[in-house]
Predict the structure.
Amino acid sequence: MAAASVWSVDPRTGNPRAQVAVESTSQEIDQAVRAAHATRPALADRGLRARLLRTAAELLDEAAERIVQEADAETALGPVRLTGELARTTAQLRAFADVVDEGAYLDIRIDHADAGRTPPWPDLRRYKIPLGVVAVYAASNFPLAFSVPGGDTASALAAGCPVVVKAHPDHPATSQRCASVLRTAACRVGLPEDVVILVHGFEAGVELVRHALVAAAGFTGSVRGGRALFDAAAARPVPIPFHGELGSLNPVVITAAAAEEQAEQLGAGLAGSMILGKGQFCTKPGFVLAPAGDAGDRLVKALSAAVSESEPGVMLDPRMRDAFVAGVRERAALADVETPVAPGAGRESSHPQAAGGQSVSAGFLTVPARLLAAEGAHDLLLQECFGPVTVVARYDSDAEVTAVLSRLPGNLTATLHLSDGEAAGEGRGAELLAELTPLAGRVLVGGWPTGVAVAPAQHHGGPYPAATSTSTSVGATAIERWLRPVTYQTTPGALLPPELRDDNPLGLARRVDGRLEH
Amino acid sequence: MAAASVWSVDPRTGNPRAQVAVESTSQEIDQAVRAAHATRPALADRGLRARLLRTAAELLDEAAERIVQEADAETALGPVRLTGELARTTAQLRAFADVVDEGAYLDIRIDHADAGRTPPWPDLRRYKIPLGVVAVYAASNFPLAFSVPGGDTASALAAGCPVVVKAHPDHPATSQRCASVLRTAACRVGLPEDVVILVHGFEAGVELVRHALVAAAGFTGSVRGGRALFDAAAARPVPIPFHGELGSLNPVVITAAAAEEQAEQLGAGLAGSMILGKGQFCTKPGFVLAPAGDAGDRLVKALSAAVSESEPGVMLDPRMRDAFVAGVRERAALADVETPVAPGAGRESSHPQAAGGQSVSAGFLTVPARLLAAEGAHDLLLQECFGPVTVVARYDSDAEVTAVLSRLPGNLTATLHLSDGEAAGEGRGAELLAELTPLAGRVLVGGWPTGVAVAPAQHHGGPYPAATSTSTSVGATAIERWLRPVTYQTTPGALLPPELRDDNPLGLARRVDGRLEH
């Protein structure tokens, strides 16, 4: 039997563009993992790794035009967004090069022998080493920043781990192109190109996470797909860390005083954030607690106006579009749910890019918050619905807000809108912040959750299902996922890695005898 | 039906000492977890936590005589060892109090807004917060240091997590006494005593890891028990981190040149380490690669002499003793395995403490290393056998050493003995160190793996089955297991926790705009 073809498809028309690959066979997965595994000694050189990351960024920037064109043809995300995403991707590669150069991620600790301790301390020297081959599962909605050249790959390479990426079927041609650039970058700096290998196919992805030489996995995608792979990783004879980002509702709480002060701006801001990228961001605000009453009504009115004006758009693939349409329909059919602007399919559009059958229009639902204060049919509204839709739950009291918040699953983000007075410490601001903190990995006061800065202090993760571990997939600390500590005891200087020698030849920050030195 | 009784048993005689509790019911587990969960706000105070840990250490020290007596009566580990273990336990509690006071574990990162970044950075401030209730599974072989007042409890409390400890059935009375001391310490410093709650029973342990309000688990024990709990933690609707230490062979490699130089010392040293605590240490050297030929023969002779002279002893419980006897018998029956000193039951002893039927005698097996270079029946020798036995594999070539090492599972420790010349950089020292590093969490050059210093640079963990995660259960970084990061975005100073305010009122070490400040 011939292997299944992998086609690049135009989501605007539903037409196939080209066959770009075939699905990887078991044998190919095995070969890929072994080939990647064999590059570990070469990747042990920190200097080369930093050069690899910077060279990859440079080559991606050079190829920007063709990459953006290819990615747009496969995802319909548009050249503006994709140009921004590529810039973010190359900035991320360079940021990890800086992390590698600095070396603080090694978390070096040296304790000289101390016979006076209970029990006595021998000479102990600890740092972190790479885990081994990392399996990366690319995301549908970020063909660059969370795919082949994205954060998982960048942080794994930074850590010294070779990467086997499972391409997302929504953008196989973009994946091929980016993998090729990364492999060229490896050649350019004198590393084996197999430090990054691309594979295709659903079954291939499952086999990958089960391969004995795969040491860890990174995933961005749905709860269903991510949980299946998480379960496979945990069920291995030797379980491996599985760092998955699976799903998030991204609740927003708007206080009565905030609505009073800026209902119109909040309604328009919410519309912008939930529609951005056709609502296909993992940080889309999918659930909003807004006050009942006049100020809340003004907010809903502003939201309606902004959402109504938005153009229909094309989602990443037909499956996703069908799930969106069905998900919206099911939610709208619940008792006491209203649809001031009905999201879904079928609205006519003048936009030339929405010519195919896959365009969807943005909208939102409203519901009395009290219906969500206890278990029931309305709990469906507390599940993520991927696409340009949000749920506005109107509350009558602080107690309702607290009751609903206590029922939410884990999230990537939680956002709080306060009045100026509340932001300065009056009223319930601190209390609400304390209620939101257990719910998310990132808590915003003001602003909107879409847009994730690639910064050292970033945390893109959160309680399950936002993430399957306590780690982040964005920001400097994402490198920690691919490392494990090792301690050398009473090891002669001649045999120690330079990072752990007393003379600190590499000039690294270290914690020596309990004190930070840098 | 009445709940099953929990008895304290004297392992020297097999006689029950007293009924100390009954097995916890489902309802009691639920109550315990909820009560512990309710103490989280009180535990949020870092100053109080540090005082709790120091007060607990003080009260345990005050109660030392009775604790050691009780623990000895239940474990037969002897007052000398147990006095040392208690000292280590209280030192560990105090060390975590220092970690809490210092606050570096919060890993604070502050990035001020920077519009020039791609994409722009909003103000981001990250630190770590406690996960919630931690389930601790006490170990059989360390009734103090890895049980109720041990490292898991100490590090979880340090992190701000309440603890529900599942007592080990080998020392329920000691567990009760220690739990009582910890709860008194909580009262003493003004914390609710339910920051630590003790439960009993196998089923209780399973229910505990499945409880919705349990946020993480720490375990020290067997591969079988630990894997079952790991699987239960991973199969939850909301999976939780499970930090288990399950088993370790702790390989030792002795080079030909090392044996040449110090065969007698190495044989005697190995005997001491493998017999220590009746071979019931997770770091017992259970597998030794020693050269064939004269020097190796001298080493085996010295080992024989030392092991023969050792007194039989009592193991922790009859099940363990039976497993030891059966495990040794099965291994000794393999082709070409020799038993210079046969371990097992049945040797007469003059030692008054070995009066019961449960005494065992130490011994060791030898086998040609080539029989372990490829899969086969002899692979049984590469599995941990708990108790006073080790396997000495005699090798003829460097290639045999490499082949056997490549077949080992993950370990807590790996030990290398080199000649003086090799330690100075001659010959294969560096190469062997590189081969041992992937195998273990702690790599020793010289010395023996038993004895785990409670030091900042310690790492007590390693590739599976040594540990189910990349974390450590001993040393300062053990606190990281019970924390998760959270980032506050554009949050007004009036609402920020003091740790994240610009004026740094607590004087903590922080990474601000990429630079470490302390």
User: Anything to note?
Assistant: The mean pLDDT of chain A is 95. Chain A touches chain B through 79 residues (CB under 8 Å). Residues 79-102 of chain A form the longest helix (24 residues). The two ends of chain A are 60 Å apart (CA to CA).
